[in-house]
Amino acid sequence: MMSKVFVAGGSGRVATDLIKDLVADGHQVIAGARHPEKIVQLAGVTPVTLDLHGDVAKIASLMAGADAVYFVAGSRGKDLLQTDAMGAVKTMQAAERAGIKRYIMLSSMYALQPEKWADYPALAAITDYNIAKFFADNYLIHNTDLDYTIVQPATLTEEAATGKVTFGEGDDTTNPIPDVAQVLATVLANDNTIGKVILMRTGDTPIDTAVKEV
Q1: What does the pLDDT read at residue 2?
Q2: Residue limits of the NAD(P)-binding domain (predicted)?
Q3: Which end of the chain has a smaller Cβ tally under 10 Å, C or N?
């Protein structure tokens, strides 16, 4: 089923692979970023300037006509409150204003379980980021009526795709970025993922199978 998808954070590492996957699946993509010239250039992709510091009405106007919204923006620690926390919330509010129900969030392993952060050095090192994600994920779950899926990967690596994952809790390992993008893209076609938080790690189950079993 072809649809139009809005990707917030469209110039990032995960977004670049996600956009390629969405286009390969037959979707049209509106990709928003502060620097739209950095968005991957492909047929079926419309780059737009997205300012997460801007107002909700402007963000909603960019999303107009989309069937689903992805939030894959990240400030890499430089602008956590306005981008990773409030920027995410604004895209949720904008989606609701634009009448879009489906919303897919890229989060971080154990973002909703702060008691676990100190147990893993990789998480302890990004505590402020986890806090931003904690508030954004909680807002999505408790303060919106969106049909959400939250994907919480372990540490992202720039390795080649394995195409295989393990979902659920476990000792924090890593995820190649293309695998995270593939999970995000696959979730869209699988309504069983609505209302779910998916913790993901590298594993042995093919991504399609794992997503269908969520």
Answers
A1: 67
A2: 9-190
A3: N
Instruction: Supply the angle between the helices 86-97 and 56-63 in degrees, to the nearest 10.
Output: 60
Rounded to the nearest integer, the mean pLDDT of the chain is 96
What is the set of domains in the chain, with CATH numbers? 4-213 (3.40.50.720)
Can you give the chain as a three-state secondary structure string? CCCEEEEECCCCHHHHHHHHHHHHCCCEEEEEECCHHHCCCCCCEEEEECCCCCCHHHHHHHHCCCCEEEECCCCCCCCHHHHHHHHHHHHHHHHHHCCCCEEEEECCCCCCCHHHHHHCHHHHCCHHHHHHHHHHHHHHHHCCCCEEEEEEECEEECCCCCCEEEECCCCCCEEEHHHHHHHHHHHHCCHHHCCEEEEEEECCEEHHHHHHCC
pLDDT band at 1 (very low <50, low <70, confident <90, very high): low
